[in-house]
Specification:
heterodimer; A: 343 residues; mainly alpha; ABC transporter involved in vitamin B12 uptake, BtuC; B: 270 residues; alpha/beta; 12 strands
Chain lengths: 343, 270
C-alpha cells in the first residue's frame, strides 16, 4: 500500500514537472512560473504569474498545451492498451506495436491521408485507423491463440506477418499518393506530436477516457483470466464476452493514439512491465498506474524529442523505440531463459 | 439417503469429429466421493468437462443441482461448483496468496470479509501451503502448483467439487492428504468427483467408482464390486492382483510375474 502511494506520488511529481518543462520549452522563452500562472489562470485562479505578453499566452494555449495534453493522453492510451492486450493474450510480450496492431492502424490512417478522405471531419483519420487496427487485431487474435494462451513464438511470428502485410499496404498507399501526402505519411509514421490541435486532443480524450475506465472496471476479470480461460470460466467470468470487449478496447486505445501521434511503439510493453515489477501483476493497480506511467513517459519523450537537437523536432517514436527495442530484447532473452528453449 | 447433485442422462460428447463419450448416464450424489477411472484417452476428463458445464453434450442432458447445466449463469454456477484442472498455469507472477484469494471472487458481494477470510485460512491449512503463500505461483514446482490450485478450489467453497487428477504431480504423503481432503468434503455433504489413475487410491477413498473405457461407462458401483481383476484386465489390458492390505483396503497391483527375482529375502527359494 505504502509502496503504491510512493510510486503514484513519484509519477505524479514527474508528470507535473514534465508538463511544466515541456510547455516552457520552445522557440519563445517562457518560464516554468509563467506556465503555471497561465494554467492556473485558465482554471480561474489569478496568481500574477501569467505573462503579460499576449503572444506568449496564445503560444501556450494554442501550440504547447495541446501538444502536452496529447502526449499525456496518447501515452496513457498506449500503456493501457498494452496492459489489456497482455491480459487477454496471457503473455507479457503482447503489445500493439509488436503484434502489428499499430501498423494496421497506420495503414488505415495513411489511407485516409493519402487519398484525402475527409468524410468524417476530425474523426476520419481516427476512424480509418480504428478499422485498420481492428483488422490487424482480429488477424493476430485468430491466428496466434491456442487454448486461451499464446506462446511467445507464435505471437511474435504472427506479429512479423501482420507487420509485413501492413507495411506492404502502407508502401502501396504511399506509392499511390502524391509527394505531399507521401512526406506527411513518412513523418507521421515515425510518430510526432507536432502541430497538435485541441480538436484532436478532444477526440483522443473522448475515446481513450471511457475505454480506460472500462478496462479498469474489468480488472478483476483480467486477474482471473491469468488462471487460464477454463478456470476463469469456472470462477464465473464470461470469457467470451470479456475477450470481445477487450479486443475492442485494445483497438480503440491503440488506434486513437496512432491516428494523431503516429506509430509510437513499445510504450505498451515497457510501462506495464515496469509497473508489474514494482507493484505486482494485479490489474486494478496495473492499469491505473500504467496509464499514469505512459503519460509520464511520453511527455518526457516528447520534450527530449524537441530539445535533443537544437531547432529540430525529432520523431518521438524514435525515442520510445530506442528505449523499448533493447528492453524488448531483454524480455525475450529472459522468457527464453525461463522456458529453456523455444520448442 | 444421498441426494443427487449432478445427473448425466444419456449424454454423448463430440470434440472435433471424434465422439469422446457415448450414451453415458451417471448420478453424482451429495456426501459421496465418486472416482472416475479408466485408461488414457478414455473420456474421463470429457465427462468431468460435462459435469463442469464446460462441454455441451451432443446428445442427452446434463443437470447440475436440478437445472440444465447450460442454463446456469457462470457466476451463479461458480459459487456452487468448483473445478481443479489437470494443468494449472498462471500467466503473470501472482503470489500464491493472490491465487487462493481468486477462489473467493465468485462470492464477491455474496459473502462478508470474515467469511472469505475463514474460507481462505481453511483452504490454506488443508492444502498445506502456508509456507508458499508469499511465493510467486509461477516459481512453484509442479506438485506445489497443484496444491496451491487445490487451495484455490477449496476456497471457492462449492457444493460440487470436481477434481481432475489432483494427485498426479504429488508425492506420496500429499497424494494421501489430498484424498483425505476429498473424503472430508464428502463427509460434510459435498458432492466430490475425482479423476484418478491409481486404482488403489480410488478403492481406498471413493464411495463409488465409475469406469470409463473408450467413451463408454462400463461399470459403476462400490469399489469392491467394480474393481475386480477381470474388469480391470478387460479395461486396461493388463492382468492385476486385487489384494487386501493389512489395514483392510483394496489394492490393485499389476501382475509382474517372475521375470525379476523376488525382492523379499524370505521369499528367496532355498
Amino acid at each position: 500500500m505504502t509502496r503504491r502511494v510512493g510510486v503514484v506520488g513519484t509519477l505524479v511529481l514527474l508528470l507535473l514537472t514534465g508538463v511544466i518543462a515541456s510547455a516552457a520549452h520552445g522557440q519563445l522563452a517562457v518560464s516554468g512560473q509563467q506556465v503555471v500562472g497561465t494554467l492556473l489562470h485558465g482554471m480561474g485562479l489569478d496568481t500574477g504569474w501569467r505573462p503579460d505578453d499576449d503572444t506568449l499566452v496564445r503560444t501556450l494555449w494554442y501550440i504547447r498545451f495541446p501538444r502536452v495534453a496529447l502526449s499525456l493522453l496518447v501515452g496513457a492510451a498506449l500503456a493501457v492498451s498494452g496492459a489489456v492486450m497482455q491480459a487477454v493474450f496471457g503473455n507479457p510480450l503482447a503489445e500493439p506495436g509488436v503484434v502489428g496492431v499499430s501498423a494496421g492502424a497506420g495503414l488505415g490512417a495513411a489511407t485516409a491521408i493519402a487519398f484525402g478522405i475527409t468524410a468524417g471531419g476530425s474523426w476520419t483519420v481516427a476512424g480509418m485507423a480504428f478499422v485498420g487496427a481492428l483488422a490487424a487485431t482480429l488477424l493476430v487474435y485468430m491466428t496466434a491463440r491456442a487454448a486461451g494462451r499464446t506462446d511467445v513464438v507464435t505471437l511474435l511470428l504472427t506479429g512479423i506477418a501482420v507487420n509485413a502485410i501492413a507495411g506492404a499496404g502502407l508502401a502501396l498507399v504511399m506509392f499511390a499518393g502524391d509527394s505531399g501526402s507521401r512526406e506527411q505519411i513518412v513523418f507521421w509514421q515515425l510518430g510526432t506530436m507536432n502541430g497538435t490541435r485541441w480538436v484532436e486532443v478532444l477526440v483522443v480524450l473522448i475515446v481513450a477516457g471511457p475505454a480506460t475506465v472500462v478496462a479498469v472496471a474489468l480488472s478483476r476479470s483480467y486477474d482471473l483470466l491469468a488462471l487460464g480461460e477454463r478456470t476463469a470460466t469456472h470462477l464465473g467470468v464470461r470469457v467470451e464476452l470479456l475477450r470481445v470487449s477487450s479486443i475492442v478496447l485494445v483497438t480503440l486505445l491503440a488506434a486513437v493514439g496512432v491516428a494523431f501521434a503516429g506509430i509510437i511503439a513499445f510504450v505498451g510493453l515497457v510501462v506495464p512491465h515496469a509497473v508489474r515489477m514494482v507493484l505486482g501483476p494485479a490489474h486494478s493497480s496495473l492499469l491505473l498506474v500504467s496509464a499514469l506511467g505512459g503519460a509520464v513517459l511520453l511527455v518526457w519523450a516528447d520534450l527530449l524529442a524537441r530539445t535533443l537537437v537544437a531547432g529540430a523536432d525529432l520523431p518521438i517514436g524514435l525515442f520510445t523505440a530506442l528505449v523499448g527495442g533493447p528492453f524488448f530484447f531483454y524480455l525475450i532473452r529472459r522468457s527464453r531463459r525461463r522456458l529453456g528453449s523455444w520448442a | 439417503m444421498s441426494a443427487v447433485a449432478c445427473r448425466v442422462i444419456g449424454a454423448s460428447c463430440r470434440r472435433g469429429d471424434r465422439e469422446v463419450l457415448r450414451d453415458v448416464s451417471l448420478d453424482v450424489e451429495h456426501g459421496r466421493v465418486l472416482a472416475l477411472v479408466g485408461p488414457n484417452g478414455a473420456g474421463k476428463s470429457s465427462l468431468l468437462g460435462l459435469l463442469a458445464a464446460d462441454l455441451h453434450p451432443s446428445a442427452g442432458r446434463v443437470e447440475i443441482l436440478g437445472r440444465d447445466a447450460q442454463s446456469w449463469r457462470p457466476r451463479d454456477l461458480a459459487v456452487r461448483r468448483s473445478v481443479l484442472l489437470q494443468a494449472n498455469e498462471v500467466s503473470f507472477a501472482f503470489s500464491v496468496a493472490d491465487v487462493v484469494e481468486m477462489g473467493r471472487s465468485p462470492w464477491l458481494g455474496r459473502s462478508d470479509a470474515e467469511e472469505d477470510q475463514r474460507a481462505i485460512e481453511n483452504a490454506v491449512e488443508r492444502a498445506d501451503i502456508r509456507h508458499l503463500l508469499d511465493r510467486p505461483f509461477t516459481a512453484l514446482s509442479g506438485g506445489e502448483k497443484a496444491r496451491a490450485s487445490l487451495a484455490r478450489v477449496l476456497a471457492q467453497d462449492a457444493e460440487v467439487v470436481l477434481l481432475d487428477e489432483p494427485t498426479a504431480a504429488l508425492d506420496l504423503r500429499h497424494q494421501e492428504e489430498v484424498m483425505v481432503v476429498a473424503r472430508e468434503l464428502a463427509d460434510r455433504g459435498r458432492a466430490v468427483v475425482v479423476v484418478l489413475h491409481d486404482l488403489s487410491v480410488a478403492a481406498a477413498y471413493a464411495d463409488r467408482v465409475a469406469v470409463v473405457d473408450a467413451g463408454r461407462l462400463v461399470a459403476h458401483g462400490r469399489p469392491h464390486e467394480v474393481l475386480t481383476p477381470e474388469r480391470v484386465e478387460a479395461t486396461y489390458g493388463i492382468a492385476v492382483h486385487v489384494v487386501r492390505t493389512p489395514d483392510f483396503h483394496l489394492s490393485v497391483i499389476p501382475q509382474r510375474g517372475s521375470s525379476r527375482p523376488p525382492q523379499f529375502p524370505d521369499n528367496v527359494s532355498p
